[in-house]
Amino acid sequence: MTQINRNFDQIEPIIRSLPEKPGIYQYFDENGKILYVGKAKNLKKRVASYFTKDHSLSGRLRVLVKKIADIRTIVVETEMDALLLENNLIKKHQPRYNVQLKDDKSYPWICIKNERFPRVFPTRNVVDDGSEYFGPYASVRMMNTLLDLIKRLYTRRTCNFNLTPQNIEKGKFKVCLEYHIGNCKGPCEGLQSEEDYNRDIAEIRQIIKGNVNVVKKELRQLMEKYAAEYAFEQAQEVKERIELLERYQSKSTIVNPKINNVDVFAIVPEEKSAFVNFLKVVNGAIIQSHTIELKKKLDERPAQLLTLAITDFRQRFNSDSKEIIVNLEPDTELPGLEVTLPKIGDKKKLVDLSERNATYFKMEQDKQKTLVDPERHTRRILKTMKNDLQMQEEPSHIEAFDNSNTQGSYPVAAMVVFKNAKPDKKEYRHFNVKTVEGPNDYASMEEIVYRRYSRLLKEDKALPQLIVIDGGKGQLSAAVKSLEELGLRHKITIIGIAKRLEEIYFPEDPVPLYIDKKSETLRVIQHIRDEAHRFGITHHRKRREKGTIKTELTQIKGIGEATANDLLNKFRSVKRIKEASIGELEKEIGPAKARLVFDHFQRK
Predict the structure, then answer these.
(1) CA distance 88 to 58
(2) Contacts of 598 (CB under 8 A, 6+ apart)
(3) Which of 80, 129, 295, 318 is the S-S candidate for 273 at Cβ 3.0 to 4.6 Å?
(4) CB 424 within 8 A of CB 557
(5) CATH of the domain at 49
(6) How far is residue 591's CA from residue 278's CA, in Å, rounded to a whole number?
(7) How distant is the alpha carbon of residue 572 from its chain centre?
(8) Sorting pLDDT into bands at 50, 70 and 90, what band is 493?
(9) Using an 8 Å Cβ cutoff, are 453 and 486 in contact?
(10) pTM over 0.70
(11) Where are the alpha helices (DSSP H) in 466-519?
């Protein structure tokens, strides 16, 4: 073992004596404070790996190992037991270097009270008194929807009277307003039997569990019984209950109803965190849904985080399902569970839905953070660009160039400016290429880059941190030549972006940089490149149109460019010049030239 811990001599005997069994290990610092809780299939191998691996690539892991002063372990029978124990210990101690898991104390439950004529109500306090608790519900709206359905289907008491047979017989209680408005059948005065009340409670229990089909079947049997006994009013009441259940169920069913009692998990990993969504599905209907964000502490892999989330969710929501559907294979074997990674079909639709929920949750989190700190998104993008492009400073000021010409005619160029990764349109500039004859993009690029930055230097204005050239190695080299002439070669980062494969070129580097197509850096570079192209094309089109119009006038014998400009400035278009009278033309260009223009268009 390599000594990478100042307390290594003290803890080495502990490591050597560890059993090769599954269990939990806990790391403590010199003050006895717990640093980290981990699970292991083999305690000895797992703990020893912390002190033999090269931790140079993981700063937080290196710091953790340096702080370890004591190691304590708990041996369990299986890796699954270790996973459950790890989850509980993390919640209890909240170690600094563990992914933080919220406990479920803040979530509401539905309680069926352990008493005669049980009450059904929401609560946030789970008491060990024999009552039944269902949940917790991550969505209060979902819980209230369920309670509202139960209220519309069944009459049940809301009072807290002690309804013992003796108290009822003695007439201690009187029916209240709930009885008179039809929300209770008056068990306090013996107006509803315990058997009848408990039959409703049994159906309520099934509905809360998501077994709506079981309740519907029982209600149909009851409806048929009433109908056979000619109790048509009661039969109609039961029929209305069935229809209400069917409406509720139709809103929830999203896949094949045969998919029964499964848990669905989807993870959406990010650079420093991951978002995990959980769906509880019974008879094809979602009865629970929750999403959490897990922030990485020690560069945990997505499979590790998913395993942690699966354990936490199943404990938190008291899941007893035998199958889980996932979008990524967990890193730990889960005994007694069938793990499905679907590729097609209804189960794939479910896992896609779960993944969308995790993505939407992430987007909502980002929006909320943006509202609190509007510059946060910009700072992250600039930091990412600095790292991806290996720059010395963040590119808060970017300028991009693009050339446009038609077979060498009307050559123009455009420059756009982005400040803090956003367009700054008042800083956009057009250039008419002056020194280049014919279609020569390289020479045109060299000219406009030189003109732009010689002017900035002359006017002592701020230079950009990054220049983007729309084109490959040729255009980039031409731009670099101008920067060298101006003494700016190593003062500004300059890159070229080629359209075909979106390669990023650096000067003097023959191998292009391929940035992830989904990265923010490439998106910003593409945006500024496309904006430069759009701005340049617009200017080129206007200049070409103006040149074409002017050529039509200068083709008239005796009419030069200056006269054509005077006419266009006055009449704004050739069409209006054609429609002008001889008198109107004479006012602008005199009688002789007016006659030439007038006769030319009259002949046409």
Answers:
(1) 26
(2) 580, 582, 585
(3) 295
(4) no
(5) 3.40.1440.10
(6) 86
(7) 52
(8) very high
(9) yes
(10) no
(11) 473-485
* Confidence at 57, pLDDT banded by 50, 70, 90: very low
Task: Give residue for tokens 């109500």.
Answer: 121
Rounded-to-integer distance, Cα 286 and Cα 145, Å: 13
Beta sheet of 132-134, edge-to-edge order: 120-123, 109-112, 132-134
Residue 377 lies in a domain: no
Tokens of 150: 């139960």
With beta carbons less than 8 A apart as the criterion, state whether 341 and 251 touch. Answer: no
Same domain? For 308 and 339 the reply is: yes
Report yes or no: 423 and 416 within 8 Å, Cβ to Cβ. Answer: yes
Domain boundary among 302, 336, 370: 370
Q: Based on the fold, state whether residues 339 and 430 are members of the same structural domain.
A: no
Domain boundary among 223, 252, 281: 252
As a whole number of angstroms, the distance between CA 579 and CA 503 comes to 53
Q: Quick check: is 548 in a domain? A: no
* Residue 547 included in any domain: no
Instruction: Identify the domain containing residue 446 by its residue range.
Output: 384-542
Burial of residue 112 (number of CB atoms within 10 Å: 0-12, 13-18, 19+): middle
In 10 A of CB 375, how many CB atoms? 10
Measure the CA–CA gap between 73 and 494, rounded to whole angstroms: 55
Tokens (6 digits) for 484: 């060298």
Structure-token pair, residue 132: 């039944």
Task: Indicate whether 156 belongs to any domain.
Answer: yes
Structure tokens of 17?
């004596």
244 and 362 in a single domain? The answer is no
- Asked if 71 contacts 47 with a C-beta cutoff of 8 angstroms, the reply is yes
What is the C-alpha separation between 331 and 374, in angstroms, rounded? 37
Q: What is the separation of C-alpha 92 from the centre of its chain, rounded to a whole number of angstroms?
A: 29
Which tens digits make up the pLDDT trace of 353-364?
A: 889 888 888 887
**Contact predicate 468/498, CB 8 Å:** no
| φ, ψ of residue 57 in degrees (nearest 5) | -90, -5
- Gap between the Cα atoms of 91 and 312, Å rounded: 10
Distance CA 543, CA 541 (A): 5
How do 397-406 and 338-340 pair as beta strands? unpaired
Nearest to 252 by CA among 290, 277, 282: 282
Tell me the pLDDT of the chain averaged across its residues: 82
